[in-house]
Structures are given as structure tokens and as C-alpha cells.
Fold this sequence. Notes:
Helix content is 28%, strand content 28%. With 815 residues, the protein is an alpha+beta fold. A seven-stranded mixed β-sheet has the order 13-12-11-17-16-14-15, with helices on both faces. The longest helix has 38 residues.
Amino acid sequence: MADKQDAPTAAVVVDLDGMVSGWSQGGRLLLGWTTEDTVGHPVTDLLVDPPPPGLLDGYDAGPDTTGFVTLRHRDGSTVNAVVTAHALLGPHGRVLGRVVTMQHWGRRPVIADQAFEQSPFALGVYDPELRFLWINASSGRVIAHSEEQVLGKKYREVLPEFDRTLFPERDDKPYTDALAEVARTGEATRLITVFRPLGSNYANAWATSIWPVRDAEGRVRAVANWGFDMSAEYWARQRLLLLNKASGGIGRTLDVIGTAHELARTPVPGFVDLVSVDLFDEVLHGEEPPSASAFTPGETIRLSRAAQHSAKEGADPVPGPTKRVTHAPGSVAARCMATGLSTVELAVEPGEGGEWAFGPGLAADPAHWPPGNPVVDESIAADGLTGRITVPLRARGALLGVVAFSRLDRPEAFTADDLILAEELTAKAAVAIDNARRYSRERTTALTLQRSLLPQGLPNQEAVEVASRYLPGGTGTEVGGDWFDVIPLSGARVALVVGDVVGHGLHASASMGRLRTAVRTLADVDLPPDELLTHLDDLVLHLASDLRPDSHFQPTGESGATCLYTVYDPVSRRLTLASAGHPLPLIISPDGTTTPVSAHPGPPLGIGGLPFEATELELPEGSLLVLYTDGLLESREHDVDQRITELQRALNHSTTSLEALCDTVIDAMLPDRRTDDAALLLARTHALAPQHIADWDVEPDTEQVPHARKFAVDQVDAWGLEEAAFVTELVVSELVTNAIRYGEPPIRLRLIRDTSLICEVSDASNTAPHLRRARAFDEGGRGLLLVAQLTQGWGTRHTTDGKTIWCAQPLPEAH
Length: 815
């Protein structure tokens, strides 16, 4: 740009009458008028418009007055000037007139031009058609053109690369469009522009401001801009944003494969174009990974490709089956895993002025690189790579695998900051993957424990036909404490139980096992449902008290449990049930109608001091009992009543197989991603045929014992069980004799042919017999011992009217 001269300053002396009495050489240079042209003429002849009030009038010794005026040039043009009026004083401070200085304010001094020319910021001025009017040296360096090369040319012609955006996925506005919009609207704007200049291998980020330049009438005459290179700050911010994205996007699920895919997807495409995550098989299976010290760089390492994601079109980011990968001895991956150090590979040596950096002027200090990095390896170009960062995947001192971050067909070389970013991403993912591995191991352990505590096979009995399902929560949840059980009872009856322990994990599974064992133990005593739950509630209170440590920590477990206990009698077709905070069962009659259960669930187990109520119903043969845990009804979209309606709709499915009906219910009620485990127990009731039952009232007289024996033997013979007649005669004699001697009337004898031959003797006494050792000369005490030896089992159950002594013997095998 050509040098400019300093603008002249005119000095004019004006007398008290407003006439020019003195004229300087500067006045002639500024306006073209000579001394002869001005002296003796009014000063106002030099003005186009009247001066601002007080500027050239008011002659006193007051302070100097400054204003802006428009002056007449001798050639007929006008000159805008800044005018300062000083009082001209004589002896004794007498005012003789004014000295007025005038300076052209439309031109800059040379120093101002030099300031703009030497500014480190890129400055430019363009006309409304975006033709170059002026640029400074910094702007010329940025666009790689001098001012003489671009003056008068359109912006789009000189810089076509600014007519597009480097990141179209971010909806960035091309810089040329921003200039045109300011010229059109007259509104200033600010933006950050990311671009790759022609001939450069690096992307630059510039902070720019664009504003309109207006004339005196307010019309937009030009567009000006300034900008500075903020690439270092911009790319540092992008790395922080990527780390922030990783913090929220990696480790959202407790799944090893899912977390590996989150790591693979997060840095693509903003940071790299291809990410692969290779893990040891032990990590995938939730086991302890091999020791890192066991590997050497010269050893072949076999891993599984857990995730891979590419920015190329058609890449599949959906988790799929893993595939085996092998890292040869001496390979970069093998060396990284053996040494625990990351490696940066570049396909070519970076060029001058931009080495190891995103853009010109951002060259990183080589001292910032770890020893041995970066490595120039031209062989990676054969794989279509321009650079690769290999990072060992380590967490809590354990080596889990290796991650490779690769760039494809992009010229930017990796920087030392990029290595730090890759290691940070890998570290975050490593902790998440190790958490998922540990969770998987604990979940597998808890699930194994729980399945071992659940019934492995449903017992053989004829009172009901049963089918069951237990489904743990999804992979993102811990194993819960749901359980169910089917317990054969005396008198051909059966108990159906379902329960739920609040909480998840090993503690919930162990608590479930304790409760199920306790229910089975209490069921063997043949307690009614309400009494059984009362004893179970007391047991839970004692367990909670025993488990409470000295620190007064209140453990969760059985104290947050619910239980539903039901007993079905196929002889009377009656169902007795009681609930400790558990949902009541659904009962569907053979005709498809739902039988209402008018019972009220009691409090959950562990509350103590509150009663449990038993409810008794008579059911038609073939009724369907549906027992379940609340995990079957869990839904965020619907309330419990709606879910029960959906369950009833699923149960009306036309199928005769309970196993198929279980599958139908599970498919209809449980989502793919459930957050709680669920148990389902279906039972279809049977009624024992009247011809399989025989009973007889016994008079309280020992002479009735022979008649009772004969009744039993005749009935056994009638059932074709002659081989059981001898044992039956002995046990009937013993039980009836004991009832007559020690019990109270009424006394009743009942024989039931079920899966075994059952003999029952009932009386109104609450005293229960027990086995005892008889000495050599004792006359009694051997009867029940004989019964226990001859039968499959015996016991006592108490009723509201007394007690029943029973014994069961296996049926003779059919010939």
C-alpha cells in the first residue's frame, strides 16, 4: 500500500468582528485559498453550513471550543474538518479575537495507517458486491495473496474454499455467505469459521467479526471484517467437548460389549474415522483377565474384536457377534499391551510450519511428546490410514485389551494433545468395561445361586397341574429375590407359594434362599396359611436382629420381603390363602370368568405385631390359579390395574398347555429391556374322584378297633392294593387305638388313594403324639415307631376342630 502524507493543519486568526485577520500556509494546503483570498473577509465565507453554537462566537477568555464543520475548498469541493477555537489575548488579558485551528478529519495520519497495516489481526474492507477494497498484511498472509493481487476482485473468485464449510454436519455457515448477509441486511455478526486453506494440510479455526460501513446518510457503502487465529483454543475446546460427550456416552450400561461399542462410536467422526476395540475372552465372559506381566512384545496375542465403528458409509455400529483377532509378535498392539505404553503412527513425516499441529502457527513443542512418539510408518498407508493411535486398555492394574484410533484419508497429523485425548477416552472406557465385567461376574454368581435355590423340578403330585417361569432382569440390572415353590402336603393337598425380596444382588438371592427354606420347614409342620406367615414374620424379625452389626446399620433383605402362601385340597376343592404384602392370585374358572378373591393382603414380612388373615374359597375343578411377582406387571406407561387387565387378556388365550400359556403370558407382559426379575406360577386344579376316598366314623371304644381294621382292609382290597393290606391293617390299628385312648371324639378314619396310599385318623384333641424310645419292660411307646418304620412318612396337622394323624405308604407297583 502506498504511503500517505500527514494531513495539514490550518491556523486562522479571527478578529472581534468575525473577519479573518491572519491565514497560515496550512490553510492554503488544506483549502487552496491564499492569504489575499481570505484576509479581510468574514470567516463564515469558508463554511458550507453555520458553525455549531459557541464555536466562532462568544468572544471571551473561556476554555477552548471544539466542533466539526464542513469547509469550502477553492476547487468547489467540501472538506470535513475538526475545528478548535482559542481565545487570542492581549495585555491585561484583554480578548483581541480568536485563533482557530482546522484539521481534515477524513484522512488518517501515516502512523494510523501503519498501525492498521501492522496489526496482528486480519483486517479487510469490501464493497457491497464483496470486491476487495483494502486488506492489511496479516490478512494477505492468511489468504496467501497481496493487496495488489486482490484489489477489485470478488471474494468468491479469490477464495472459493471459503464458499463451503469444512463440517457440513454442524450446519456451519460458509464465511462468504456471512459477508454477503451483512452487506444485505446491514447487521453486524460474529462467528467462528473452520476452514482448510488451499494448499494446506491443516484445518484452521478463526474468530471473526463482520460489520457494515455506512456513509453520512446511513447507507451501507462497504463491509469490513477482522479476525484472529484461535485454532489452538478451538481444537482444545473440541477435545473437551468430546471428553464431555464420552463422560455421558460411555458406560451407560453394565454390558461389556455395549460399552465397547460406545467407545467405538464416540470419537467418530469428530476425532478419528475408525475405532476398533479388542478384548480378552475372559473380559467378555466376566472373568479375571490374564496378568499384564504375562505378555512380552514377542508373543502372539489372541483377542476378540468386541467393537468396530467406521465413518465410512455403510458401517454398522450395532453390536453384533465378536470375531477372533490375532496380534502378531512385535506388532504395535502387542508391544503396547506388553509395555503398557501408547504408540502414535503417522504415514508420512509432517511438513514444515505445521508439524505435529492442526494448523499453521500451531506447531507443538516436540518435548511434549512422550518418548518414542510419534513413529513414521509408511506401511500403514497401504491400509488406507494416514495415522493411528494404539492405546492399551487398562483399568485398576488389569490389562483388558487394546484400542486403535485411526484416521482415513484426512491430512491432519495427530498431535501430542490428540494422544492425550485418545488415552483419556480409553481410560474412561476401561473403567466402564471393567465395571461391566465385574458386574457380569457378580450377576452370574447371583443368578447361579438363585437358580440353585429355586425348584429344579416341580414335585410329583396330582392335586394340580403346574407350570412356571422365572426371568431375571435385563443385563443392566442385578439379580433380584423373586421365588416360587410347589410343596406337597399331607392329605393329597399341595401348597403353592410365591414371594419377592426387595433389592438385588447376592444379598437378595441369599435372603430368598433363607425364606424359601423357612417356608418349606413351616409347611412340613402343616400350619394354616395365616399361622405360617405369622411364624415367618417372626423369623424375619429375628434374622434382621441377628444381622444388625454394632454400628446400628440396618441391612436390607428379608425385612423388605413379601409372600403369598396358598393351600389347595383336591378332596374338598377348597383353596386357602394368606398374603404378606404380596399381590393376590388371579383365579379363572373353566368357563373363562374371573373368580374374585375377597382377601386383604397383610403387611410385608418383618413389620411385626400385625395379623395375617386367611381366606377360603371353593373352586370348580379345572380352575386356573395365577401366582406372580410384581415384576410381571412392571410398566412405566400403565398403572397396575391396566396391567392386570392385560394379564387377564393374555390368560384367555385358547391353549390347553400350561407351558404354552406361560410362554404366551411372558411374551405379552414382559418387555425386552426389563428392570426387574419376574416369577410366574400357573396351576390348574384337579378334584380327587370320590371313589378314591373312603371314610368312617369311629366310636370312642376300643372294641371298634377290629371294625376299623376290617374297614381299611376291605377298602384296600377293593382298590386292588392287596399287597398294602397288611401294613394298612397295622397302622390303622395303631392310629385308631391312640385316638380312642388319648384323643377326644368325634374320631374319624379316612383312606385316600392318590400318588400314595394315605391313612388319616382325626379327633378333637389338640395334643400331638411323638416318637419316644421304649425301654425293655415298657408296655407302650412302640406304636408310632412301628408306623414310622412301615410307612413312607407320617405326621400331624392341626385344624380348627382338633388334629389329624396321617401316614403315607407307596402304592405297589403295577404288574
